[in-house]
Amino acid sequence: MTSQPGQPIAVQGADCAPLMFVTDTGPIAVAHAGWRGLEAGVVQTVLGALGEQGATVSRIVVGPVINQECYEFGADDLDLVAKTLGDEVRGTTAEGTAALDMRGAIAAACASAGVDDVVFARPCTGCGDGGFSHRARQEPERHALVARIRPAKVVA
Ligand SMILES: [Zn+2]
Question: What is the pTM of this model?
Fold first, then answer.
């Protein structure tokens, strides 16, 4: 989180979601959201921290994330996430097996926290050119979502 104009903040990911919390006034924040974090309430936690600083989140931007077609998921863990975030987290892989729909999980977590304006990066990290993938290709690299408050223009 930062309230300093021009100061970049960043979060890394490789299948898990980098989240950027856009505010109209006050600080901004970024956060890493994997399924465990979503299930544990990371979105609500960040919104609460921003709220304590007087910021109201108007939009959440989601960086590259793995899509359901590439994200096979165990039934027990899927039930756990669905219990918290709802059945829209249940997806299907390209092979037809059970999957976690991270986009659905993120949208549900944001909606339950009161933010409906959620923008997603398009490509899948697993099969698209959406960035690095830990699950699909065991890549050790991570991509970064970088955010900053635009400095006020200096008028001469
Ligand atoms: Zn994919």
Answer: 0.92
